[in-house]
Amino acid sequence: MRQVLRKLAEDRASMFGLALILVVVLAAILAPILSTHPADVAEFHTGIRLSPPNPDNWLGTDRMGSDIYSRLLFGARITLTIAVVAILVAVLIGVPIGLVAGYYEGLGSDLLMRGSDVFLAVPQIVLAIAIAQTLGPSIENVILALSVTYWPFWARLVYAETRSCKKETFVEAAIALGCSPFRVMVLHILPSISSSIIVRTTIGMGGTILTAATLGFLGLGPPPPTPEWGRTIAESREYLPMAWWYAAFPGLAIFIVVMGFNLLGDGLRDVLDPRLRRASRGR
């Protein structure tokens, strides 16, 4: 673990990504403290509608006269909550399915994988839009739509890794010693493939945030006046290019957090993936 952390610390891009993520997380946690107008994120102030950035409203105001800076801080809470919960549910569904299907062979394993193939056959965003449209706009429905969309990726990853790991000597030794299939899967195989799951989860966070913002942009996310980043960009369209700050700052927030997770995920992949380490040694 120390070696992994040391190598990760030497990767400047990964550390930059981690710094971006920490800044966004801290901003979301401390939103009531950091916000300049914490009580006005969902109220009308007709006298200052669409005001450009100024000392009172650092990032300007929106069509309701609400402070965009404050709405971005509280919107970070919604965005991160949707992404974390959706990824957690997807992992809890996909990892056990992939683990069981990869360990066992036969009709049951084939049915589980064919089921995941059905979900993978439909483009992610199309499936997420269809589910969210059917259920209606809300945070819970967005989380459900994203979870249903993303779990097959973890199932496929864990299935392939389990198939490969099952041939290793330590797994065969555990089976020969009489360990139960549950013990072999949970205590021997799962820890061995955890690095791939961690990398996929980290990179998946960025994609989940982007998809959640897309649903919000299409009006399928949390309903107004919720300060969700995607919905804010959608609301700003009719005021472009006059009120450029209305769309620019929410878009920049999405860009920063997605880039942070992608940079960190790339660094973790280089450090944790043994196949990449062997390839680098060969060069």
Automatic annotation (TrEMBL):
PANTHER family: D,D-DIPEPTIDE TRANSPORT SYSTEM PERMEASE PROTEIN DDPC-RELATED, OLIGOPEPTIDE TRANSPORT SYSTEM PERMEASE PROTEIN APPC
Organism placement in taxonomy: Bacteria, Pseudomonadati, Pseudomonadota, Alphaproteobacteria, Acetobacterales
Keywords assigned: Cell membrane, Membrane, Peptide transport, Protein transport, Transmembrane, Transmembrane helix, Transport
InterPro entries: BP-dependent_transpt_permease, MetI-like, MetI-like_sf, OppC_N
PROSITE patterns in UniProt: ABC_TM1 (PS50928)
CDD domains: TM_PBP2
Ranges for domain ABC transmembrane type-1: 76-265
Primary subcellular site in the record, as a coarse category: membrane
Topology in membrane: Multi-pass membrane protein
Similarity remark: Belongs to the binding-protein-dependent transport system permease family.
Protein name: ABC transporter permease
Subcellular location: Cell membrane
Residue spans crossing the bilayer: 12-34, 78-104, 116-136, 142-159, 197-221, 242-264
Lineage top rank: taxon: Bacteria
Keyword Zinc in annotation: no
A Pfam cross-reference name: OppC_N
Signal sequence annotation: none
